[in-house]
Amino acid sequence: MWWSIRVVFVLHLVPIFFAGRNQVYGELFTTTSNGGGLINLELKPSPIAKFLTASALAHPDNFELQEKYDWYQPLLKNCRLHIPDEKNLILSYYGHHSPLPANAVIPHGTTLVARCPVLGKMKLLGAVSIQCYHGKWSDKFPTCLPTTPSDGLSAFIDDHPPTIKTNVPTGSAGENAAGELVVRPGSVVHLDCIFYRKLGNPQWTWKKSNNLNRTHPFGWAISREERLWRFRISIFSIQARDEGEYTCTTPRGHNNSIRIVVQTIQCPAIPVVESPLHAVIEGNYAGQRINYFCLEGYQLTGSNFSECLTSGLWSENRLPVCELIQCPYDMDGADPRLEFDFLNGVGYKAMVKFSCPPGYQLIGLNNATCQQNMDWFPPPPSCQVVECPELLPPLNGRIKDSGSSHFVGDIVKFACNRNFQLLGQAEITCMENGVWSHPAPLCQMLCSHPGTPSYGFITPANATYEIGATVQFSCQPGRKLQGRKWSTCQQDGSWSSAVGACVIGT
Predict the structure, then answer these.
(1) Where are the beta strands (DSSP E) in 251-332?
(2) What is the pLDDT of residues 243-261, one digit of tens each?
(3) Where is each Ig-like domain found (predicted)?
(4) Which of 67, 90, 116 is the last residue of a domain?
(5) Considering the domain boundaries, does residue 271 fall inside one?
């Protein structure tokens, strides 16, 4: 429904709300000039319109609205929503479940309803509803009191109102904007008063909305896990006669209540979903859900469920979307030297293989798989330059290369001091795996030539001899060796026996 209204003596136009005979509230939709200083406004109704004109702020008593039927009404003041000391309080207006934002401006005549977060976990103390009337609230804002802990009996202290937990094993139920439990007829409802059994027995009482009395069974829960701390009242096949306020009172007089409303509330027909999106449907009554999921290889974008609210609307007005999983070709933060080999694309469960250029070694796993969250796992490895371990010069020898670091392809040469022999490779190379191609050589001491007997011979006749080498001495014909015939090169570089002499023999 739309209203056409003329505004008289407006100096500067911004969105506006109106209060008249029919309590019309609206937001500026269009403006058209009719000449003569009069401007037509088209307004659409809004329960939380929150704007004034500049002229109305300057002259609220003289500001007039002229409707097409020529009646006049001064603009009524709005109210500001400001409750800084009560962070847990949730305020909304009738017919709407969503909470109002902090510091919202509320128009005259609007009634707000209050509730605490998580039904039964806090106790609302004060008025359930308050109304804005010409800039003032009809009552003080209520507060939310903490209740007894429900997640650990070891620290249980009976100094707060009891927590009440709801359970609807059969049927369905949901919470409305006023903090009431709206239950579908025929449902089974369990209300559990959380209290430590060893401290005594709480009591359940109820005030019915009508004069029809009906008894309900109550007592401690039976299961082993619950019988020490859940004092339960059960309402089977709930009907309209069971509507009312159910209160649990502890032995010390602390109490908490839940108000039950029995009503059938249905949300619109369940939307049809198409593959790859799939849905598990509980139903379309208040408190029931549609749970969404995607086929393997797709990621859900949007809410994974939609709940039928007590307003008769679904909590989500749009279906989620199944997005094809595609992992990125470029990996953020990856080593710039890392090389990729995508074996089978970048879709879900695709695999990428990692490698490093020559001279670098891979630090980490050499492959990763595309995950449901569109990212690779495990994270990419890094490429670390390959460096062979430092070499020490052999005893009685030296390294011809003076560098302190050795990378892939580097060649190191060795040499031994005089009278020492190199045992091993004179040159070794740093390999791609970070090890040397051969062990470092040794410098072994040599024996120098022991000398040749006069008029004699030595076999073999070398310039130097290795440790353990043996030489034989002999004489020319007609002469005889005086001394040992054999001599061995010892570890210290000396010979085991001196060179003998060749004398004329008889």
Answers:
(1) 255-262, 277-281, 289-294, 298-301, 305-307, 321-324
(2) 999 999 999 999 999 999 9
(3) 162-266
(4) 67
(5) no
Structure tokens at 19: 């209060």
Q: 């559990």: which residue's tokens?
A: 192
The reply to whether 218 falls in a domain is yes
Please report whether residue 395 resides in a domain: yes
- Asked whether the beta carbons of 131 and 225 are under 8 A apart, the reply is no
Q: Are 381 and 335 in contact (CB under 8 A)?
A: yes
Judge contact between 459 and 483, C-beta under 8 A.
Answer: no
Question: What's the mean pLDDT in 70-99?
Answer: 68
pTM across the whole model: 0.60
Report pLDDT digits (tens) over 322-352. 999 999 998 888 999 999 999 999 999 999 9
Give the position of tokens 């909305």: 209
The span from the CA of 427 to the CA of 438, in Å, is 8
In a domain, 364, yes or no: yes
Domain, as residue range, for 310: 277-324
Dihedral of CA atoms 93, 96, 97, 98 in degrees, nearest 10, equals -80
Same-domain pairing of 302 and 374: no
pLDDT tens digits for range 180-236: 999 999 999 999 999 999 899 999 999 887 666 678 999 999 988 888 899 999 999
Same domain flag for 373 and 397? no
Q: How far apart are CA 237 and CA 394, in angstroms?
A: 95
Q: Are 74 and 64 in contact (CB under 8 A)?
A: yes
Q: How many domains does the chain contain in total?
A: 7
Q: Which two tokens stand for residue 396?
A: 């009685």
- Comparing C-alpha atoms, which of 454, 492, 485, 455 is closest to residue 470? 485
On whether both 164 and 252 belong to a single domain, the answer is yes
3-state secondary structure of 199: helix
